[in-house]
Structure formats: structure tokens, C-alpha cells
Design goal:
The chain is mainly α. The protein folds into two domains: 196 residues, Alpha-lytic protease prodomain-like (Up-down Bundle); 71 residues, 2-Layer Sandwich (Alpha-Beta Plaits), CATH 3.30.70. Helix content is 66%, strand content 10%. It is built from eight helices and three strands; from the N terminus they run αααααααββαβ. It has a three-stranded mixed beta sheet, covered by helices on one side. It is elongated and about 85 Å long.
Length: 284
């Protein structure tokens, strides 16, 4: 199955989804059996992972829904919206992890970390498989989950290392310290994805529109008010105003429109709205 094949991508996402639910059940059983705070934290994280993959799977069909009178670009923004919501859920759960771990500093009794070790070992076997299944997928929600899966490998390794230390040195402070490290690592690894998707929801782009307009004006001084924004990964929209001679016909202006369109295509713009405006002091 190639990465460019929609059916193949959806099939891999479905397998990854099933594996994430298996991991969640593993950590849930670990927590029920041991009442270990690390197992509870990882079980909370895995339920968001599993829910995230389920949303990612649904987004393959949702973004294909046709546009409506009110949603003229269809449902492509669902990718960005669900990605931001998922990452915010990750961060909230990480904060929750710190809150539930804090009392452990003063605890004289540390619950057995053995079940956490078993679940972490299972995760380290399955997470690389999930990362491989999701690699190269351009669906924003799936891409978010792909990045988060790489983070999960690292944080699970930290949890495994912390659990092994707790066997030989049972300490609430060690448990709390590992929770803090996992929180910091998770936030750092998700920060770029979060800001990128928020920028999409704010109708922004990662391009410098001022520089593009300045460069465009060197050839077409009559260009002004260039706006570029991304609807989603697949739609980059631009609008631009152009002063034109009052007596110019659309046929005469067509070569200019085509050149401006070709210029913006180099920046990934695949939908351009160009507005010509009459000018008393400019002649075409």
C-alpha cells in the first residue's frame, strides 16, 4: 500500500487505531491491578491516543463531504480543529498527571510498578509499529497522531526507566520527578504542531505575505492588498487587488492575471481571486 493511496492510508490508520485501543486497555488493567500513579497517567494518555486515532479515521470521510451553502470549502477545517482539540487534551492530561503525582512526594508507600513495566514493555513493542503505519500520511489529524506516537515512545521509555528505578529505590519524589520530566518533554514535542494548527484556524499561513507582495510589486507595481491563508493542508487561498487602466478589457488583462497566478502557484496557492480596480493615474 502506497502512502498516496487513500484506501491504503485509511487502512493503516484503522490498524493503528485498533493497536492504540489495545494499549489503552493494557494500561487500564495495569492501573486497576496496581493502583500505580504512572499507570494511571499513561492510561489517561492512551485513552486520548485511542480517541484521537478514531477521530483521525473519521476525518478521512468527513473531509470528503461536499461543500454546502454555508460551508463553501466543505469540511476540510475539521482536520485542524480536531488536531488542536487533541493536543489541548494531551496537555490537560499532562497537567492532571502532575496534580495526581504531587501527593506521592509525601507518600511513604509506593505501589508496585511491575504492572507498569509490563504495560510499558508492550507499548514499546507496538508504538514503533503504529509510527510506521502512520508515517507519511498528510491528513493533519493523523499527522498529529504520528508525531504524538514518536513522543509516546520516548515518554513510555521514561516511564519504564522510572518504574525500574522504583523497584530498587521506592520513592515518591522519584515518581513525581519522572512525571514532571514526561510533562516537559511532551509539551516541547507537541508545541510546533499545536502552533501550526492554531495558525490554520486563525486563517494564517507559514508564508511571509509581506515579502511575497513586495516581490510581486517589483514586476507589477499596481498590485496591492495581497492576502494568503490556508483552509487546510490541501487548500491555500489568495486574494489580490490590481489597479488597471480604465479602458482595459478583460482580454487585455488576462496575460497579467495568468502571470500573477503562475507566480503565486510557486508558493503553493491553488485558489486565487484577483480583483481589478480602475485607476485614473495608471495606464495599462
Amino acid at each position: 500500500m502506497e502512502n498516496g493511496n487513500p484506501a491504503g492510508r485509511k487502512g493503516r490508520a484503522a490498524i493503528a487505531n485498533a493497536l492504540y485501543w489495545v494499549l489503552f486497555l493494557g494500561f487500564l488493567l495495569s492501573f486497576i491491578s496496581s493502583r500505580n500513579a504512572l499507570s494511571m497517567a499513561l492510561a489517561s494518555d492512551r485513552i486520548v491516543d485511542a480517541a484521537g486515532m478514531t477521530i483521525a479515521l473519521a476525518s478521512y470521510s468527513i473531509v470528503q463531504l461536499p461543500p454546502t451553502g454555508r460551508l463553501t470549502y466543505g469540511y476540510h477545517r475539521f482536520e485542524s480543529l480536531s488536531s488542536v482539540l487533541l493536543i489541548m487534551a494531551f496537555i490537560l492530561l499532562l497537567i492532571y498527571t502532575v496534580i495526581i503525582s504531587t501527593p506521592e512526594i509525601y507518600s511513604s508507600r509506593i505501589h508496585s510498578p511491575l504492572y507498569t513495566i509490563y504495560s510499558s514493555a508492550l507499548s514499546l513493542l507496538l508504538l514503533p509499529m503504529i509510527a510506521l503505519l502512520l508515517h507519511g500520511d498528510e491528513n493533519l489529524t493523523t499527522k498529529t497522531m504520528s508525531v504524538h506516537t514518536l513522543q509516546d515512545i520516548f515518554t513510555t521509555a521514561l516511564a519504564l526507566g522510572g518504574s525500574l528505578i522504583l523497584i530498587f529505590y521506592p520513592s515518591g519524589f522519584v515518581l513525581f520527578l519522572f512525571a514532571i520530566v514526561i510533562v516537559i518533554v511532551s509539551i516541547v514535542m507537541n508545541w510546533g504542531v499545536l502552533t501550526r494548527n492554531i495558525r490554520l484556524l486563525m486563517e494564517g499561513t507559514d508564508l511571509n505575505t509581506v515579502e511575497i507582495e513586495s516581490s510581486l510589486k517589483q514586476k507589477f507595481p499596481m498590485v496591492h492588498h495581497l492576502h494568503i491563508w490556508d483552509v487546510c493542508k490541501h487548500y491555500r487561498i489568495a486574494t489580490v487587488h490590481v489597479y488597471a487602466a480604465n479602458n482595459a478589457s478583460l482580454l487585455e488583462l488576462e496575460p497579467m492575471r495568468r502571470e500573477i497566478d503562475d507566480y503565486l502557484i510557486k508558493y503553493g496557492v491553488n485558489h486565487l481571486t484577483l480583483q481589478f480596480e480602475p485607476s485614473q493615474w495608471m495606464k495599462h
